[in-house]
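Let us work through a complete example step by step.
Step 1: write down the sequence.
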Amino acid sequence: MNKDLIRQIVNVLAVIVMITINVLANALPINGQNTGEISDLFQVFFVPAGYVFSIWGLIYIGLLAFAVYQALPAQRENPRLRKIGYWFALSCVANSVWIFMWHYNLFPLSLLVMLVLLASLLVIYLRLDIGRTQVSTVERWCVNIPFSIYLGWITVATVANVTDVLYDVGWTGFGIAPEIWAVIMLIIAAALGVAMAVTRRDVAYLLVLTWAFAGIGVKQAASPLVATTAWIVTVLMIGMIFYSFFTRKGQVSPAPA
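Step 2: predict the structure and record it as tokens.
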């Protein structure tokens, strides 16, 4: 069987399995707990309001669009999709394994798996050269945007996972108040957003950060320091979105013929 065809089939199967496991995680639920209930066990400040997690619906749609698009016969030898290789399948495996680590309260292991997921998405993002290579409108919506959204959310999720694990192991934060650490995390995440705006003009990625930061502002309203910082970085991300939108024209080089 053609190796490109095998890759296409593996990618389709991988995303179907991953989405199925994520749905069952809350439908069953796995280990008698749904994902949100476990998150509520951690008294941390780097967590958004519950409605923010609805972004997973958009992520699933985007990944399904990618799976269908890359499976088309016309895309079998697409050089950009070939560059992804089996990194997408690895990301689906990591996502699925994370669900089990999380639902069985194996939080340090969940962080290790989350880092694998983040790394695989970074490799995909860089290999696709998103924000720097001109692509067709269809490919932008079926490949670039889904991975920008997914990477943006997993960036936030990784930071949240770190804070959850530190809380779980009883880390005292070197005597620094949890609210201050939340502010530091927000600043770091915002710095990543600024870097992405300057280097990639990736509006989709920045929209995800904006969505997450605003959600933290809503959730942490009882903590003025955290909420205020969240809203400040939200406004900063909105500014970066406008910057990216109005400066990216002419910034992407055409893909090689």
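Step 3: interpret the result. The first strand starts at residue 133 and ends at 134.
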